[in-house]
Amino acid sequence: MNIDPAVLTTVLLVIADWTIRIVALFIVPKDRKPTAAMAWLLAIFLIPFIGVLMYLLIGNAKLPKKRRERQKEIDGLIAANVHAHDYTVDRSAWPAWFTSIVRQNRILGALPASGGNRAELIGDYQQSIDRMAAEIDTAERFVNVEFFIVAWDDTTRGFFAAMERAVQRGVKVRLLMDYIASAKVPIHKESIAELDRIGVEWHYLLPVKPFKGQFQRPDLRNHRKLVVVDGQVAYTGSQNLISRDYDSPKNQKRGLKWQELVTRVTGPTVAAINTVFLSDWYAETGENLHETAHVPVAEVDVDPSPDALVCQIVPSGPSFDEENNLRMFLGLVNAAQEKVIITSPYFVPDEAMMYAITSAKFRGLDVQLFVSEIGDQGMVWHAQRSYYEPLLRAGVRIFLYPGPFILHSKHMSIDDDIAFIGSSNMDIRSFLLNFEISMLVRGESFVRDMREVEEGYRAVSRELTLDDWLREPAKAKFLDGVARLTSALE
C-alpha cells in the first residue's frame, strides 16, 4: 500500500504534537508553582516545538549537580563554624516574630544574626564607588570584590586604581563578576585587560562555555554586589561597578541614569558578607580561602553602644532548595503592624507576595511602593505595570520615580525598626533564578536613615492614582497582560 508522503508527514506531526502535550502534562508541573506550570504548558500547547526547545533551554531552574553539591558542602562548613560569626545582644528583647524570621533565615541560608554592627546608607552613585576605592586604599591583607557587572570606565577608574595600588602593596585582591552580564558590556575586553594588567585575580561567575564543560541554564545569573576589605568593613546594595548609564549607547541615547542605594557596614556582619564571597569563590574555583581571606569575629571591631544594629545576611539563589529571600520578604510583610514601604526597580511578585502586600493594606497598614516611571527592560516593565490596578484597588500607594532616572535601589522598611537592603528585586527572577544577597537589619537609627531616603524619593516622584491608571490606553494594558504571562516562565 502506497502512502502519500504528505499525508504521512502530517500524521507524524500530529502524533508528535500530541505526544509532546501529553508528556508535558507529566513533566512540567512537577516541583513547580502552578502559575509557572500553567505558563509553560500554555507555551508548549500553543507553539509545541518552539515551546519544547525553550523548556529544554531554560525550563530547569537547578544548577548542575556538582555546583549544588558544593553549595551543600559550603552550608555544612558554615553550620559547623557558625559560632565564628555569632555575636549578639540579648535576644530576649527581640519580638517573637523577629526571632522566628531570624531562625528561618539561619536554617535556609546558614548564617546567624549578629549584634554590635553599624551601617550607613549611601545614595550618591559616584560617591559610593569613591568610598569603596578609599576603603581599598586602607587594605593591608585582602580585598574581596563581587559584582553582577564590572566595567573599567570613567566612573570606576578610581576604583581600579585603588585595586592596583593595593596589589602593589602586596595586598591580595580578588574579584568575581557575572559572566553574561559583564561580557555583554561594550568595553568588556578593555576591562578584563585592565584587571590582568594591574594584577587582580579574577574569575567569572556562572560562565556559559559549553565547549569547556561549563554550562547551566544561561539565565541563571549571580546578581550579588559586595566589597569586603580586610574583614573589617563591607559594602553591599544595588549598585554595580559601572558607569551610571551602564556604558550602553541605547541608554545614553535615552539619557538614562541609574539611582542606587548602598550600605557601608562594620561589625560582626562583615564576616557573614565575606562568607558569601568565599562561598562563591569556592563554588567557581574550588579554592577554599577560609585560612587566607577570613577574619574571625573576635578580631572585628564591635559596637557596644545601645544604638548598635542587629544584622543578618541572607544569601539566596538556585543552589538553595528554598527561595530564601522570598520567604524572608513574606515573613516581614505579614509581621508588620504599622507600615510597609517597598522599593524595587523590577516589581513582578508571585501570588504569595501580592496577597501579603494587599493583606497588609486590608489590615489597616500604611503600604507604599516606589518604582520607576519608565523602564529599561520592556517586558519586565510591562509585567510590572500589570500589578498596579489590584494594588491601587487595595489602597496601596504607588510612587513613580521620574525619568530619565531608573530607580534601581532594592530595599524595604517595616514599622519603625526593621528593614532590609541588598541586591534582590521583588520579582520572580530574583526569588528563584538569581543568586542574591540581602541584609536584614533591626535598629531604629537605620530605619530613620532609610525613611529619609524614601522621603527623598517621594519628594520627586508622582503618585499614581486609580483614576490615572484607568485612563491608561488599552493597547498598553494588553502588552502588560502578555508580559505578565511570560514572566511566570521560571
List the helices and strands and how they pair.
Elements: H1 5-27, H2 34-46, H3 48-58, H4 65-80, H5 96-109, E1 113-122, H6 125-136, E2 142-147, H7 157-168, E3 172-178, H8 179-183, H9 188-198, E4 201-205, E5 221-222, E6 226-229, E7 233-237, H10 249-254, E8 257-259, E9 262-266, H11 269-285, E10 309-316, H12 324-335, E11 339-343, H13 351-362, E12 366-372, H14 378-385, H15 388-394, E13 397-401, E14 405-407, E15 411-414, E16 418-422, H16 428-433, E17 434-442, H17 444-460, E18 462-464, H18 466-470, H19 474-487
Parallel strand pairs: 2-3, 3-4, 5-17, 8-14, 11-12, 12-13
Antiparallel strand pairs: 1-9, 1-10, 2-6, 6-7, 7-9, 10-17, 11-15, 13-18, 15-16, 16-17
Number-wise, the strands total: 18
Alpha carbon gyration radius: 23 Å
Largest sheet geometry: 16 strands, mixed
CATH architecture of the largest domain: 2-Layer Sandwich
Which CATH first-tier class of the largest domain would you pick?
Answer: Alpha Beta
State the end-to-end CA separation.
Answer: 48 Å
Global outline: globular
Strand content: 15-25%
Which percent bin holds the helix content?
Answer: 40-55%
At the fold tier of CATH, the topology name of the largest domain is Endonuclease, Chain A
Task: Calculate the mean pLDDT score and round it.
Answer: 89
Count of individual helical segments = 19
Number of domains: 3
Structural class, please? alpha/beta
